Amino acid sequence: MAHNLLKGKKGVIFGALDEHSIAWKVAERCHEEGAQLVLTNAPVAMRFGKINELAEKLNAQVIPADATELADLEKLFQESMKAMGGKIDFVLHSIGMSLNMRKGKTYTELNYEHMLKTMDISAISFHKMMQTLWNLDAMADHGSILALTYIAAQRVFPDYSEMADAKALLESFARSFGYHFGMRNKVRVNTVSQSPTMTTAGSGVKGFKEFFQYADKMSPLGNASGEACAEYCVTLFSDLTRSVTMQNLFHDGGFSNMGMNPAVLDLPRE
Fold this sequence. Notes:
43% of the residues lie in helices and 15% in strands. By secondary structure, the chain is α/β, with parallel strands linked by helices. The chain is globular and about 55 Å long.
């Protein structure tokens, strides 16, 4: 059910690879709530993704951009403002990739050149995105910037490897830039720490299926779905959350506050 929460708002969404992507689901819900959108992804990701299919469905423009390249980001935001006829109300960063994990490197044998690339793609790209928006004065007053993260930034999940460090850095960028954007023109910057979700990227993590099932049992409400995450993101883009900023917001069915759930051990509840 739509409530026109984003009617008249203009947004840029990074990372909609295919229908399994959270960014894809966020774009769909934003469109349903009345937003005008620009979709973007790295050119290499666009070649094997379905972003053009989504753009046609949502009547959105696609502007390719490598989020690690400042020139690409500047062009993206300038063209987005031109295409949508004004400043940007909201932005979603949904980008992450570990070169070491792709190459099967464990945390104790990381290739540091690969690690630097992981940090650039998965975290520093968020700072570059915000700094470009800042320099262009591209964000509308009371706008909202979001990035997707994961609880491995605070807890140890061995198979998540260097991506845990990248997410910790990402969350720090949100707090630090959140101060500056808030002081300038009341723009909010937050991160959403989502449950394990069956995305194309997530499914590639070693042992993901087993951990997905564990987290679902551990969480009183079960794992939050990608669709539910999209709905939560809509509220954070809307005017209903104008006083929420510099927060890491857990959207995980209660997992983040659990110690042990008897359901994990198949024990009866009292």
